[in-house]
Amino acid sequence: MGTRLKVLSTFKALHRTRIAVFKEDDRALKAARLKINEEFRKNKNETSDENIKKMIKMGSDVEAVLREGVLQMEHVGDKKLMLRPRESLLLENVPYCDQPRKKS
């Protein structure tokens, strides 16, 4: 894949992740959009392949952190927050077992 396509793919992935992570939070959606666009515009004239690859890697890492590590919380009263996790962050709550399962 060409460098230009990789940059565009990273740009689109960041925006898709932003929309999924900050769903129903207009202020955060707008702030993330502005920051993503600002960073890409700031570096649009970069010509060094090595630097471009580093920036693509950083963008991919940021996308992964947003996708895997950001939770939405909402104020629901004085000193109370409501957690709104995405489906992709919920894990099956299975107790740990030292013994391997017996096959039947």
From TrEMBL:
<dbReference type="InterPro" id="IPR045298">
    <property type="entry name" value="Complex1_LYR_LYRM7"/>
</dbReference>
<dbReference type="GO" id="GO:0034551">
    <property type="term" value="P:mitochondrial respiratory chain complex III assembly"/>
</dbReference>
<dbReference type="GO" id="GO:0044183">
    <property type="term" value="F:protein folding chaperone"/>
</dbReference>
<dbReference type="InterPro" id="IPR008011">
    <property type="entry name" value="Complex1_LYR_dom"/>
</dbReference>
<feature type="domain" description="Complex 1 LYR protein">
    <location>
        <begin position="6"/>
        <end position="60"/>
    </location>
</feature>
<comment type="function">
    <text>Assembly factor required for Rieske Fe-S protein UQCRFS1 incorporation into the cytochrome b-c1 (CIII) complex. Functions as a chaperone, binding to this subunit within the mitochondrial matrix and stabilizing it prior to its translocation and insertion into the late CIII dimeric intermediate within the mitochondrial inner membrane.</text>
</comment>
<keyword id="KW-0143">Chaperone</keyword>
<dbReference type="GO" id="GO:0005759">
    <property type="term" value="C:mitochondrial matrix"/>
</dbReference>
<dbReference type="InterPro" id="IPR050435">
    <property type="entry name" value="MZM1/LYRM7"/>
</dbReference>
<dbReference type="Pfam" id="PF05347">
    <property type="entry name" value="Complex1_LYR"/>
</dbReference>
<comment type="similarity">
    <text>Belongs to the complex I LYR family.</text>
</comment>
<protein>
    <recommendedName>
        <fullName>Complex III assembly factor LYRM7</fullName>
    </recommendedName>
</protein>
<comment type="subunit">
    <text>Interacts with UQCRFS1.</text>
</comment>
<keyword id="KW-0496">Mitochondrion</keyword>
